[in-house]
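Q: Can someone sanity-check these two? First one:
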Amino acid sequence: MSPSRSTNHGPQGPDPQQRRLLRVCRIGRAQGLKGEVNVYAYTDEPERRFAPDSQLQTKDGQVFTVVSSRRFKQRWIVLFKGVEDRNASEALNGLELYVQADPAEELAQEDAWYPEDLIGLEVRMAPGNSLGEPSGRVVGQVSDVLDGVAQQQLQIRMTTKEDDEEAEGLIPFVEALVPQVDIENGYVAIDPPGGLLPGLV
């Protein structure tokens, strides 16, 4: 479950008529010699997204067409049209692919966020937090959103109590630890356990 949402998305970019891109996957290592790649899915519909003839695109508009795909443990193995050998597949390592959201998908994203929505938000202590910190106390700022194996993590630039020096910390982006995201008012509320973030014990 996502943290509770307080507002709608922020601006979608310079062209409000352009549909938002939904991130589908990140391409990993080459698989074998025939052009297949390991793919790490961010979508809830991998069977649909990686079906033969499905088209995915990079942020700059380069289109990749799926030839075939199969699931393997926690990832997918996908063959894209025009990627015919290991050299070509190795060149795709690290590439992220997207689809343009249709109206129904845009509506479904009401309870989701994109990294650009979160970076720069103020980090405050949640009401009734387990550390006994004052509600709303500002402890840092979201500096990045990282993709972990099980879930995303917020990277937080902390200001420690002792000397006001900045330090970085990570907190899993799950409802128990990040119970509120308020894009419009520019903050996230956190309830971390002691010792997880610098300066919070």
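And here is the second, same format, sequence then tokens:
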Amino acid sequence: MTHSYDESENQGRGPEEPVVVRDRRRVDPQTGQVRPPGPAHAAPEPDETPVEHAGPSLGESIVDDSVSVVSDVEKELAERTADLQRLQAEYANYRKRVERDREAVVIGAKATVVNDLLPLLDDLERAEQHGDLTGAFKAVGDKLISGLQRAGLESFGAEGEPFDPSVHEAVQHNTSPDVAGPTVTVVMRRGYRFGDRVLRAALVGVTDHEPGAAPGDPSVGGERPLGGGVDEQQQ
């Protein structure tokens, strides 16, 4: 009887529905990660409050912090690059200035040594003019002069040069119709320069053009050619 009673109850109720358990938790309790939206929690129940993405509240910045950080880094990198370029330029200028000063010191030292040898060069020149510079003495003198010239010594002050007050020291002055302007006609002491530096000015005698006379006019100074001029010969 018990078995027949149970069957009648089951026939009156109909087939039983399977029990479905839906896990609506957004965070997986085993992994601790947020679950992707699925059919189990696609639509929230009426008692659940939907999550809305509200805009920024009052006073909240909408600028992305990562963008501002990158901009600050780029700005600082540009400043450091400019500082490095400026430092390199200053160092290059410093090296050029040091090299220039060093070269000037070397040239100054050489010029000082050469300046002390100028009286010896004057003695050699006077000995040559008197014919005493011969034999081994002449060979030594030629080697000395050649070595000084290779080092940068240059002589100036010769007859026929235009007078230059920056390198010539005039101790005599004459006039003549044979020159067109101030000209060196007598050299009493040769001048020397070492590179761009004048070690000693040349002592010279200067002849200037005689006023009122053309260069090469033979009648200047009261002197006339023998036999008179051309007109007198024709007469």
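A (reply): Looked at the second one. Residues 4 and 176 are 167 Å apart (CA to CA). The longest helix spans residues 65-116.
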